[in-house]
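Quick one:
INPUT:
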């Protein structure tokens, strides 16, 4: 037992907090198993961090991580894309990943290494591994959706992403950012924080992945021995793999448990028929084709072929 533990503050930036707490706690278990119980992981929600360390004033989580006041965090890949790690926009392209095995090959292989280096180059933080926030996306809506045509003329709630804007346009939807949107893309484990109270109907479209990444302060990682750095990366990979599996299982559990659906305010859950999935693919794959040329090093085609 190491009596003089090094404290690492892990800042939770996104909701639902319970999903991110689970990852942080598992990382703490793994890094202490690998290092002989060397670290104390302090896990704080954003408001808790602000109250404890900034007199209750708001902070920018990325600025805190860069400055080393926070040592670790976990952010959506699309949020990092909006911060200038623009290659991460590629990860949200529709029908990019064939299945979870394909996604794992990409995230844990050469392309994943390149994407993590891209974050370092652009944002001066280290990405250690990739996790899910539910895996494949679904659509939450204020009325049941059964066909691709049902999406036409609806309004979608979305982040300011060029990929999402083009995707919704391809479906004949309004891409304006509105509080009273009809549709929100989410995943079942995070439905209750993304969907509005009126969006009680879910259609599983599996059109895109909801991805996150575990981040670490650059200077801290660089200050460690090569052996210790490898242990941090190993711990992150172990808990990322476990989290991706658990995240998918969470979604399946909600899909098959009406009581969990009721807890989240879900009235109906459905799947597009195979014919409708093909129609959806026919509308959205051209969006991926269109964006492919904007990413260097033939990124999109290499992901497709992995």
């Amino acid at each position: 037992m190491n009596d003089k533990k090094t404290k690492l503050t892990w800042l939770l930036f996104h909701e639902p907090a319970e999903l991110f707490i689970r990852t942080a706690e598992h990382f703490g278990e793994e890094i202490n198993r690998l290092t002989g119980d060397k670290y104390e992981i302090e896990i704080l929600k954003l408001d808790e961090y602000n109250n404890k360390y900034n007199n209750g004033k708001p902070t920018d989580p990325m600025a805190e991580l860069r400055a080393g006041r926070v040592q670790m965090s976990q952010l959506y890949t699309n949020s990092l894309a909006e911060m200038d790690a623009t290659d991460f926009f590629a990860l949200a392209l529709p029908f990019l990943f064939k299945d979870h095995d394909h996604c794992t090959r990409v995230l844990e292989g050469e392309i994943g290494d390149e994407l993590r280096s891209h974050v370092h180059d652009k944002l001066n933080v280290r990405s250690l591994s990739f996790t899910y926030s539910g895996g494949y996306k679904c659509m939450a809506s204020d009325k049941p959706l059964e066909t691709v045509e049902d999406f036409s003329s609806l309004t979608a709630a979305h982040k300011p992403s060029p990929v999402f804007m083009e995707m919704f346009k391809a479906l004949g939807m309004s891409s304006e950012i509105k509080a009273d949107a009809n549709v929100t893309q989410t995943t079942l484990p995070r439905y209750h924080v993304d969907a509005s109270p009126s969006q009680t109907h879910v259609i599983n479209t599996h059109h895109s992945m909801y991805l996150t990444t575990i981040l670490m302060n650059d200077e801290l990682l660089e200050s460690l021995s090569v052996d210790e750095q490898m242990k941090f990366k190993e711990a992150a990979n172990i808990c990322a793999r476990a989290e991706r599996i658990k995240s998918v299982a969470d979604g399946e559990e909600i899909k098959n448990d009406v009581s969990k659906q009721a807890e989240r305010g879900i009235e109906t859950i459905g799947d597009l028929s195979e014919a409708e999935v093909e129609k959806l693919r026919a509308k959205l794959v051209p969006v991926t084709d269109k964006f492919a040329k904007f990413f260097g090093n033939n990124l999109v085609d290499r992901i497709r072929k992995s």
